[in-house]
């Protein structure tokens, strides 16, 4: 028998603008330092001054410049982008579902995108990036639609347990379908890279497309963040305050799908970033989403840049999958949250 | 508890008989299908010892052991799922969903990484490896969901299990990323649930576990009936809840881990079989456990046969077919509740 989830704890808006602002400014500063560090370490070590020079005074003939601008910079920018996108989509999902465990990796979104990717590669082996992006976006929508559709059939159905269980089953189903497609069309190798996450393939062409979309997505999220704060106190309260809850949910969910879909199309399925970052941020800036969302974007980027750098350094010159590094931090975090959540029910 | 509808002894026996008949038919069909199909007449004469050497080879060396492994593993997973559902009082429990398979899988990966080059006699050791992995995972899940004064709260148990399952699967992917291509392919197939134990050795490695553990489970059927009720009722009826729960959990984990060690990571059999059995004859464990066991075998055998005949010559892993059937069933059960 499923035990019904009743959140009886009284909530209050905790907003700390001063801390929020300083977190953003300090965070951006830290992010830049991390980026310079990340670009300088690698198979060919390059000192900080050269990194700085080649980014701001690009010289086509320089070897270091080519490595930095051609390979490392797009990779790191991709990582920054994905970190921000995943963290923001996690924050939005946690706000909408009022479920502290909501996260693209656990709710069928990544699996759906993977399934779409498998289908696409089966029919068109050399799809262009824009097609891949569109497919992963549709797949993410499929996964999320299934999870939320099924868990909300019953009244009061969106309890953390039900959503996690539905997410787990949808994930199994879509992964099995993707594996089946991959086996029939001999794509196992291509998909396994995607499953463990790979940050090394990002190029400028992809970034030109992905950067504006992610920025617009995050901006929409920030515009709607006040309404999200209200929504996070419960549907009834939001309606009582005159909010059009369905509209807000649809817009924000679309943002989640776009952000998660782009992340998958760039680096593959990365779980736990969207789960962890908003919780860390909430600990610092309180429960006001006007601060949670921008701070999550900054924190997500920092976390992922550090993880990616660690992944390159742990077993150099081989790259450890970034998904593994994130999981090492993310697993204890999830278990802690699950334990806390279980206690509350 | 929902309204307890209890089928009469006669009906229970009839349904059990029918399911055994279905299993036997599935068995015959499965033996006949494959890359090289055997006609009924070929099959008949091979079984009675008059087949050609090729027919003998196909039947006795390849197909029969694989089918027997499938039947035994299906049985083990179904019984394991049935116990887990009663012990956690959560009808959606399954060794795959709770992370027990993943834990067993992790140890299988370690076995493959360090011992697979050894002699085949090590096959007997593999179930123990899986068992250690399954038990360790369960202990972690149990400790994380245990709280003093409250014991193990079923909701928390499931949440922790689901999270741990995805975590361990991530770890498996990481470990396998560095393996040789051949080993990597083996692990990928294991995770997808390809029945790989297709030799008599695997039948022998699996059989003792079922022969020993099944009677224990059936002798505990009345305790399972009580544990499935409210915790307070169980205590009131004089059951040492925590102790019995731990013992039964251990049995369930052992069955699941040992089964998946030779069958590959297969989820949802442990979910589906007990549910269908309960729908047929009601929630009394004495009645539905044997039927669940037979249904588990049928489900896995049919899935494996479908998978084998879909894609020549390697086939689609049974685990994928099971999941494609089982996950929607799981979602249906969720939506219904």
Automatic annotation (TrEMBL), chain A:
Cell compartment(s), UniProt: Cell membrane
Principal subcellular localization: membrane
The keyword Cell membrane is annotated on this UniProt entry: yes
Alphabetized SUPFAM superfamilies for the sequence: ABC transporter involved in vitamin B12 uptake, BtuC
Keyword Cell membrane (UniProt): yes
BP-aspect Gene Ontology terms: siderophore-iron import into cell
Alphabetized InterPro entries for the sequence: ABC_BtuC-like (IPR037294), ABC_transptr_permease_BtuC (IPR000522)
Gene3D superfamilies for this protein: ABC transporter involved in vitamin B12 uptake, BtuC
GO CC entries: plasma membrane
This protein's UniProt keywords: Cell membrane, Membrane, Transmembrane, Transmembrane helix, Transport
Domain of life (superkingdom): Bacteria
GO MF annotation list: transmembrane transporter activity
Transmembrane segments: 21-46, 105-123, 129-151, 163-185, 205-225, 246-277, 289-306, 318-338
Membrane topology value: Multi-pass membrane protein
Assigned protein family: Belongs to the binding-protein-dependent transport system permease family. FecCD subfamily.
Name listed for the protein in its UniProt record: Iron chelate uptake ABC transporter family permease subunit
Organism: Shimazuella alba
């Amino acid at each position: 028998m499923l035990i019904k989830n009743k959140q009886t704890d009284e909530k209050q808006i905790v907003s700390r603008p001063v801390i929020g602002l300083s977190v953003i400014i300090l965070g951006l500063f830290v992010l830049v330092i991390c980026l310079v560090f990340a670009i300088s370490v690698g198979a060919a070590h390059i000192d900080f001054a050269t990194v700085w020079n080649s980014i701001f005074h690009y010289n086509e003939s320089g070897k270091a410049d080519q490595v930095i601008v051609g390979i490392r910079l797009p990779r790191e920018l991709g990582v920054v982008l994905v970190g921000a996108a995943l963290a923001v989509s996690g924050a939005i999902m946690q706000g909408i579902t009022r479920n502290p465990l909501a996260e693209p990796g656990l709710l069928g979104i990544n699996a759906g995108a993977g399934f779409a990717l498998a289908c696409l590669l089966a029919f068109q082996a050399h799809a262009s990036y824009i097609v891949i992006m569109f497919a992963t976006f549709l797949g993410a929508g499929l996964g999320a639609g299934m999870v939320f559709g099924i868990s909300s059939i019953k009244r009061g159905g969106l309890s953390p347990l039900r959503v996690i269980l539905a997410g787990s089953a949808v994930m199994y189903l879509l992964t099995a379908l993707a594996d089946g497609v991959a086996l029939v069309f001999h794509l196992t190798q291509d998909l396994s890279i995607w499953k463990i996450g790979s940050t090394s393939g990002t190029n400028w062409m992809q970034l030109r497309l992905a950067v504006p979309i992610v920025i617009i997505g995050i901006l929409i999220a920030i515009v709607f963040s006040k309404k999200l704060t209200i929504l996070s106190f419960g549907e009834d309260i939001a309606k009582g305050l005159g909010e059009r809850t369905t509209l807000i949910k649809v817009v924000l969910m679309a943002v989640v799908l776009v952000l998660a879909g782009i992340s998958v199309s760039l680096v593959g399925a990365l779980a736990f970033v969207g789960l962890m970052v908003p919780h860390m941020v909430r600990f610092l800036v309180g429960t006001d989403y006007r601060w949670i969302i921008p701070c999550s974007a900054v924190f997500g980027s920092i976390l992922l840049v550090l993880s990616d750098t660690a992944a390159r350094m742990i077993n150099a010159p081989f790259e450890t999958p970034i998904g593994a590094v994130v999981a090492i931090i993310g697993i204890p975090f999830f278990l802690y949250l699950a334990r806390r959540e279980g206690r509350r029910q | 508890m929902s309204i307890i509808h209890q089928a009469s002894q006669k009906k229970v026996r009839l349904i059990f008989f029918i399911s055994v008949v279905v299993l036997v038919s599935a068995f015959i069909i499965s033996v006949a299908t494959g890359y090289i199909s055997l006609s009924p007449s070929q099959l008949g004469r091979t079984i009675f010892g008059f087949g050609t050497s090729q027919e003998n080879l196909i039947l006795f060396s390849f197909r029969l052991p694989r089918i027997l492994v499938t039947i035994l593993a299906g049985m083990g997973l179904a019984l394991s799922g049935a116990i887990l559902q009663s012990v956690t009082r959560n009808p959606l429990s399954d060794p795959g969903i709770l992370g027990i398979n993943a834990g067993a899988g992790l140890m299988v990966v370690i076995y493959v990484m360090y011992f697979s080059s050894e002699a085949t006699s090590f096959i007997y050791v593999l179930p123990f490896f899986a068992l250690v992995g399954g038990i360790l995972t369960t202990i972690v899940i149990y400790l994380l969901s245990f709280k003093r004064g409250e014991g193990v709260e079923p909701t928390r148990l499931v949440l922790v299990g689901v999270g741990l399952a995805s975590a361990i699967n991530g770890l498996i992917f990481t470990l396998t990323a560095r393996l040789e291509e051949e080993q990597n392919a083996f692990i990928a197939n294991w995770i997808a649930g390809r029945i790989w134990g297709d030799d008599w050795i695997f039948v022998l490695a699996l059989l003792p576990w079922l022969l020993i553990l099944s009677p224990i489970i059936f002798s505990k059927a009345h305790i399972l009936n009580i544990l499935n009720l409210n915790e307070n009722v169980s205590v009131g009826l004089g059951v040492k809840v925590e102790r019995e729960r731990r013992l039964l959990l251990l049995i369930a984990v052992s069955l699941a881990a040992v089964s998946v060690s030779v069958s590959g990571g297969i989820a949802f059999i442990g979910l589906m079989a007990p549910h269908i059995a309960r729908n047929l004859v009601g929630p009394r464990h004495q009645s539905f456990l044997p039927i669940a066991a037979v249904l588990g075998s049928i489900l896995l055998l049919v899935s494996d046969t479908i998978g084998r005949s879909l894609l020549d010559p390697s086939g689609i892993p049974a685990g994928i077919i099971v999941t494609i059937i089982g996950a929607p069933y799981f979602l249906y059960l969720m939506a219904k509740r």
